[in-house]
Amino acid sequence: MGSTNSTLLKIPNVEVLMQETGFSPAHIIRLHDRFKALDKEGRGHLCPHDFGAIKELAMNPIGDRIIGAFFSPGKETVDFHTFVKILAHFRPVDKDRPKEPNSPEPINSRSNKLKFAFQLYDQDKDGKISRDELLQVLRAMLGMQVTDEQLESIADRTIQEADLDRDDAISFEEFRKSLEKINIDHKMSIRFLR
Amino acid sequence: MFFDQQKSVMAFLQHFALLLALIIVFSTSCKAVTLEVGSVEVGYNDSSKSSATEDTSTSINGSTDGHAPSVISTLPIVTWKWHHIETPYLVALWILTCWLCKLVCELNHNVTSVIPESGLLIILGFILGGIIWGADKAQTFKLIPTNFFYYLLPQIILDASYCMPNKLFFSNLGAILIHAIIGTCWNAATVGTALWACYEGGAMGTLNIGPLQFLLFGALISAVDPVAVIAVFEEVHVNEVLYILVFGESLLNDGVTVVLYNVFDAFVALGGPRIDAAEIFKGIFSFVVVAFGGSFLGIGFAILLSLLTRCTKHIQIIEAGFVFVVGYLAYLTAEMLSLSAILSITFCGICCQKYVNANMDEKSVTTVRHAMKLLANGSETMIFLFLGVTAIDTEIWVWNTGFILLTLLFVFIYRIIGTFLFTWMLNKFRLVPIEVIDQVVMSYGGLRGAVAYGLAALLDEDKIPEKNLMISTTLIVVYFTVILQGITMKPLVQWLKVKRAAHSDLKLIEKLNNRAFDHILAAVEDICGRIGDNWWTRGWNRFEENYISWLLMKPKARKNRDYLFSIFHKLNLEDAINYVSEGERQGSLAFSRSDEAANVDFKKQFGSEFADVMPNIMVDMSNYELGIEHFSVTSIVKDTIPSVSLDIHGQDRKNAMDDINAHHLLQQHLYRSRKHHRHKYSRSHFSINQNEDEVQEIFQRTMRSRLESFKSTKMGVNPAKKITKHHKKELTHKMPNGHPDGTGHLYGDEVDIAVGSETGAINSTFMRDTYTVGAGIENPVFLPDMDSPTHSPPWLMETEAVAPSQRAQRRLPWTPNRLRRLAPMRISTCSTDSFLMADVSLTLEEHEEHSQTDHVEMRPVFD
């Protein structure tokens, strides 16, 4: 326990972080270890190329987008707090925890999880998934087997399904509506972060 | 209201009376026949004999009466040969009876919504059994374990496993296995020991049962029956996780039960005193070997089956049959090796489905699906009915209040305890815990069925003196669970507000995002640096894709089997079907020719704003469909008719002129299959009248016309413009003159050669598409005749006036241009013929205006 506390003490504002993310001390320590392992040069923050060094991630078709999600626009680095906060999106929702009436919406709420997914598509941050943005993701995920022509018709159809105001793009509201039936808590949660 | 109800009741009664009459006639005729033949009571049991003596008696009768060999005074014209056909006849009659019973059950939905079908069938079985009893005064028909295990059960298990939602199954595999294996052992052990304890405590009087027999009984009674469970849960529509848990558990649990049963059976045979630690260890070891051996055998057969279907391209008609035969062989082989047959066929079905479905022709896949449902549903019906029929027998009923009631109690209680216990343990590890309500339904859904009865009937009376008590207890447990729990399941689910299955339409965006989520989760796990579920999933998927698919799938199937794309394809097919059926429902197959129809939003979401969206799509299409814009752009501009409208009349008036054109185009350019004198029946092909040459020919024509349109665009013709006659002049001048027709000729010749002498008549059609002919003739319809009168096919001669006849007004059905949007991948070469539509408009007007010069140039080609 002594080592636990000493590690925790090294992290500034750890209490606030735990409160915001809902992670237990054990999680924070584990993530902190991981953070330090990724931060090979010991600068206290991570750069995109630190993420790029993860081999599996490089093979992920939308890996670069996910890396991009860690960096707020214009910033080249991510510190431990942001790192943990972003990972907190994937914490399963805990039902037993009493809900405080005026507490802010937790990071791992359904709509925050959805927002995370949405921004992966919406690369130009205009609040809409345009046809081109969708096409890029589709191309990355579907690979070589599908021709461009087919990709386009898939993209058209996808947009058509979600697009309620017929602007040929998917806004976040439309995105959320179209995924209403999906159990996001289930699909966007990782067990070991519980 | 009242009358309605009365009417339906009357109808029901009518049907029922009909059925009863049928049954009575049937059973009495059997009886009469047997008496007439003068045999001893023919104890016929379902489909084969139960005892050797009866067998011999029938065969004796058969030889004496059936053949009537010895003394005949005169040549008999017809003879009565009941014994020749007795067995198959009765089997067929029983199948008919069972299915008629199902028909009766399904007549009234008010009844089936209260009592599940399985329960109804059992009750009908009671009635039928009573009739037979009344006629024969003995039980002549009952469910025999051999028939059940070899002829009725396999297809049900195969169907259940072949249609198993794989992803759901494997993602919940842990929970399913825990419940199926440990849960079953727990049930068997606790029920057995608790009963034994009660027996020792004196609750059942004196019975000749030892502790091992109690355990054996506990094993057989713990078989949660997939047949019963599916039958009940299908009507309840619980959420998918709960469904897969109950369903998967019951499926695997059957296999486990049988294994457990065999182990305990061996222990009983061995006798109590000789069992020591080594034997117990051997028993456990055997349990593991039998269960896992059976599963691996099944996987082996799945691989075999997948490999087989890789090379059945040339025997498409019977390739569907392989699934059944190999599946059945998996079952029998496991039985032969004394491995778990149920587990074997289960895993065979689960593992092969993906590859088999990809390898086989789409039609065969449909065949398999339907045939499997037919077999499974059919035998399920028979099983339940016979469970009812079997009950009407004085011999098996041995009543022991203590034993029966205690069994019911323990079965129920330990099921609940077991479920809660194991779920509690599982929930510590599950991402999404199983809720308490779901646990209640799970434990309540422990329906016992025919497997338990079959196992009980298999008991050896020498070893277990109280066999009949066990059978009757099992039957009571089955009736209790299937009928009572089945009836109460639905109200319970409603009362507990169990999360129901959200019935939703297939949506591309959901599937797309599911895949994105998978990638995201895998990436986050990588970032966290921990090996989690998604890591394993991804690893398996990669392995599967790289090695297993490579081995088990046809290269072709492998190529275009992207999941998202197949969803897309499926959606498109649905839309196309909906579209056609909607058109037909509105009383006409006459589809609008204008391209709006092609882009109808089938969900009618677009409504009147359609036109806004259209240009976008049209531009996309224009990339690959050149000529089409001639129609589309104009029609969008002109027509403001809502997109969904299939009402053609509005457009008729406007586009009368277009119609006339279309009429010509259709007349001339739609492919007409020529009359071939071929066989009307073929055992090995469905499409008997489709000639290879014909397909080839259509393909050639299509390619040719596309080539032409390609050429024309290359020369700077802009087909997007509305082509008026003025434009036309330019265009047609350019076309033939600006380009040497050498290539065209060459191509044409090739086509002729390819098509061969048989299709010589089509020459004119080729030429007519693109080459202008007929000096000074204005009406294009007559052009072909001028072109090469001797060759022109007879149907062209028929075409006469250009008046907008009935036929002219008939709109073009789905042209491939439209279908293309629907299902870009699967368009066959056969249907692409109407691509001509696109180009033809150009050529037609060529015909009209500038024919002379071209004609001179072209002429040599024809000769």
From TrEMBL, chain A:
SUPFAM superfamilies: EF-hand
CDD domains, sorted: EFh
Cellular component GO terms, alphabetical: cytoplasm; nucleus; plasma membrane
Pfam families: EF-hand_7
InterPro entries: Calcineurin_B_homologous (IPR051875), EF-hand-dom_pair (IPR011992), EF_Hand_1_Ca_BS (IPR018247), EF_hand_dom (IPR002048)
Occurrences of domain EF-hand (ranges): 109-144, 150-185
Highest taxon, organism lineage: Eukaryota
One Gene Ontology biological process: protein transport
Molecular function per GO: calcium ion binding
SMART domains: EFh
Subcellular location: Cell membrane; Cytoplasm; Nucleus
Family the UniProt entry places it in: Belongs to the calcineurin regulatory subunit family. CHP subfamily.
PANTHER family, alphabetized: EG:114D9.1 PROTEIN-RELATED
Name of the protein: Calcineurin B homologous protein 1-like
Species in which this protein is naturally found: Cyprinus carpio (Common carp)
TrEMBL record, chain B:
TM segment ranges: 89-107, 119-136, 148-164, 176-197, 209-233, 242-264, 284-308, 315-331, 398-424, 469-487
Localization per record: Apical cell membrane; Early endosome membrane; Recycling endosome membrane
Membrane topology type: Multi-pass membrane protein
Region (Disordered): 45-64
Any one GO biological process: sodium ion import across plasma membrane
GO cellular component terms listed in the entry, alphabetical order: brush border membrane; early endosome membrane; recycling endosome membrane
Domain Cation/H+ exchanger transmembrane: 112-495
Keywords carried by this UniProt record: Antiport, Cell membrane, Endosome, Ion transport, Membrane, Phosphoprotein, Signal, Sodium, Sodium transport, Transmembrane, Transmembrane helix, Transport
Signal peptide location: 1-32
GO MF annotations in UniProt: potassium:proton antiporter activity; sodium:proton antiporter activity
Keyword Nucleotide-binding (UniProt): no
Catalytic reactions of this protein: Na(+)(in) + H(+)(out) = Na(+)(out) + H(+)(in)
Family to which the UniProt record says this protein belongs: Belongs to the monovalent cation:proton antiporter 1 (CPA1) transporter (TC 2.A.36) family.
Function summary: Plasma membrane Na(+)/H(+) antiporter. Exchanges intracellular H(+) ions for extracellular Na(+) in 1:1 stoichiometry, playing a key role in salt and fluid absorption and pH homeostasis. Major apical Na(+)/H(+) exchanger in kidney and intestine playing an important role in renal and intestine Na(+) absorption and blood pressure regulation.
Name of the featured protein: Sodium/hydrogen exchanger
Naturally occurring in which organism (per UniProt): Cyprinus carpio
